Amino acid sequence: MTGDNRTGHVEVEIGPALAHIDRLQADRRHRDSSGQFFVEGVRNLAVAVEHGFPVVTLVASEKLLKSAPGRSIARQLRSAGTPFARASPEQFRSISRAERASGIGAVLRQRVKPLHRIAPRRGLCWVVLRSVRSPGNFGSLIRTSAAVGGAGFILLGGAVDPFDPAVVRAAMGALFGQTFVRTGADQLRHWARRHRLQTIGASPEGPVGCHEVAFRAPPLIVLGDERGGLDSEQRALCHELVHIPMVRGIDSLNLAVAGGILMYEVMSRSLRER
């Protein structure tokens, strides 16, 4: 590591920085053990900084970074003493997963809260997940939750990774304004009971259509994975199971679509009640 005491800039070696970023993108165990993840792109980094995500290391290629807002963010972070790795265009492209490398990215600290530290009535609703087979579906759910004013996601167990590169990319910046909580089913049941929160599960076997249920804000919307649906423990959490009406012969929807329909149903009820 090298530094310039006159400017406060701290420059780090590019080789180790790139190796660390490669591992963060390829190895979940490394993401979890380090508590870090990588984002690239001007928009992602701007929104992350706006929401107070700590920047561990800034990586930028001056030749690739043509965006004036991107150059401004880089200057601000470097002036604040954020460690900085200077990359050539080829080096930056080696870690980029975008169609066109923007020339700026950062290693950020993950932010996952314990259940007892969140405000239960913040936001329109919470989405409860145990597993998601497609990271892209999870990223789409995050975007939809942000669009309706949802509070965030309560993750049961350790299967779902909100900092998977595919999730981060699909969320398109929406991830940084959402709250992520990791807990167990028993803890969630007691917490929801203590705060008198309504828990609604989505299932084709639900006796009531999602348009018929009386949502009490903010509900917990429990979604199963794409193939298996709700498991027995998730069902036990729910006060009510609801189905999404579909034409005859169709019995399932993409997880992101199903979750989006339910979230917008909650939003529609909320708007009508104002």
Topology:
Blueprint: E1 2-4, E2 9-12, H1 14-26, H2 28-34, E3 36-40, H3 42-50, E4 55-60, H4 68-79, E5 83-86, H5 89-95, E6 104-109, E7 126-129, H6 135-148, E8 152-156, H7 165-171, E9 179-183, H8 185-194, E10 199-202, E11 208-209, E12 220-223, H9 232-237, E13 240-243, H10 255-273
Parallel strand pairs: 2-5, 4-5, 7-8, 7-12, 8-9, 10-12, 10-13, 11-13
Antiparallel strand pairs: 1-2, 3-6, 4-6
Helix pairs in contact: 6-7, 6-10
CATH class of the largest domain: Alpha Beta
Low-confidence segments:
none
Based on secondary structure, the structural category is alpha/beta
| CATH-derived architecture of the largest domain | 3-Layer(aba) Sandwich
Tally of separate helices: 10
Distance between the termini: 56 Å
Strand content: 15-25%
**Helical percentage:** 25-40%
Within the CATH hierarchy, at the fold level, what is the topology of the largest domain? Alpha/beta knot
CA-based shape: elongated
Q: What value does the Rg take, in angstroms?
A: 21 Å
The topology string of helices and strands comes to EEHHEHEHEHEEHEHEHEEEHEH
Strand order of the largest sheet: 9-8-7-12-10-13-11
CATH superfamily (homologous) name of the largest domain = SPOUT methyltransferase, trefoil knot domain
Beta strand count: 13
